[in-house]
Every structure is written in C-alpha cells, then in structure tokens.
Write a structure and sequence with these properties.
Layout lengths: L3 H20 L9 H8 L3 H7 L3 H18 L7 H14 L1 H11 L1 H27 L5 H25 L5 H23 L4
Helix pairs in contact: 1-2, 1-4, 5-7, 5-9, 6-7, 7-8, 7-9, 8-9
C-alpha cells in the first residue's frame, strides 16, 4: 500500500508526463486542466490540491527534470561528458523547453539550466586549479563559474529556441575550447601567492 506522500508524488509525476506529452503537439496556452485531469483520470480538485495552475505544474516538471539530469551524471566526470549530456537532454526535450520559453520567458528557462551548468563549470574550474597546483580566491571562482554559466546557458537556450546554424557538436567543441584555453589563463592570473 502506498503512503500519501508516494501517492501524491505519483499523481504529480503522472500529470507532468501528460503535460509533456501534450506539449509535443499543443501550445501550453491551449492546454486545459480539464484535459490533463481526464487523461490522468483524476478530478480538478485533485489537480488543484497539487498545483496552483498549469504554470506551476510546468515549473515543477522542469525542476524534476533538472533533478533527473543531475542524477544521470556524476559531477566528477569530465566537463565534456556533462555538457554533452545537458545538450542531449535539451535537444531531446526541445518541445518542452520551447513551450516553457513561450509561457514563462527566458529567465525561468535559464534558471532551469543554471544550477546544473554551474556545478559542471565550477567543478572544471576546481579541477584546473588542482592541476595547476595553485590556489584561487573562492569568491573569484564563484564569479568565474557564474560568468561562464550565464554565457553557456544563454547559448544553450538560443540554440534550442532558434536552431542556430551550428550543430550541437560544433557548439560543444567551441564551448570546450573556450573553457580549456581561458580558464587556466585566468586562474594563473588570479592565483593567490602565499
């Protein structure tokens, strides 16, 4: 027998999956709570127990997707594998990202990618710091990771939204080249001398 918490999570996951499936062929603004409830075989009251509206369901769905993305890669793997995974996820789920972009805007979608990318980039910065056997102020490392994360998230969103002329592999290799060349140079410049 399922606990209330397990049942609640199952209901939310079911609604999220139906929303994702529906967004493949319908704009978010055209999706109704009634149609989601009908497919899930729940009543509207149950929907409103879990979510305020469709936008809160979409937001929860994106947050759960972000958790799954992180679970699927170890942050200690190399940066290329992690970025490749995030880009593959974005490519496979472009319909969700585009629907969310249209309804929630750029900032909300950027926030979805931000934490995952920040962790990957911060890990890369610390790895370079270790390889160079230097110490860099932690505030500066946070600043640098935030800088690269903003740029990377922006490029990723732009690529998904507008299907830039470059393919996924070209963008990935360009990002990796920028990281590989600039991060060591910047860290050498900002190292703390004891």
């Amino acid at each position: 027998m399922m606990t209330n918490e397990e049942l609640s999570l199952k209901t939310k996951q079911s609604l999220a999956q139906v929303l994702k499936n529906t967004m493949e062929h319908k704009k978010l603004s055209k999706i109704t709570i009634s149609e989601l409830c009908a497919v899930c075989r729940i009543n509207r009251k149950t929907f409103y127990y879990h979510f305020e509206d469709i936008y809160s369901l979409l937001k929860w769905t994106l947050e759960q997707e972000a958790v799954e993305v992180v679970k699927n890669f170890d942050l200690l793997v190399n940066t290329e594998e992690a970025l490749r995974f995030v880009m593959a996820y974005a490519d496979e789920n472009k319909h969700i990202i585009n629907c969310a972009f249209d309804s929630m805007g750029y900032e909300e979608i950027k926030r979805f990618f931000y934490n995952d990318l920040f962790s990957v980039i911060y890990g890369a910065i610390e790895q370079v710091e270790d390889e160079l056997q230097i110490t860099v102020d932690s505030q500066f490392k946070n600043f640098l990771a935030a800088f690269y994360t903003e740029a990377s998230a922006g490029l990723l969103i732009e690529w998904v939204k507008n299907r830039m002329t470059q393919d996924k592999e070209t963008i990935l290799q360009s990002l990796l080249s920028i990281y590989k060349i600039s991060i060591p140079a910047i860290l050498r410049e900002k190292r703390i001398f004891n």
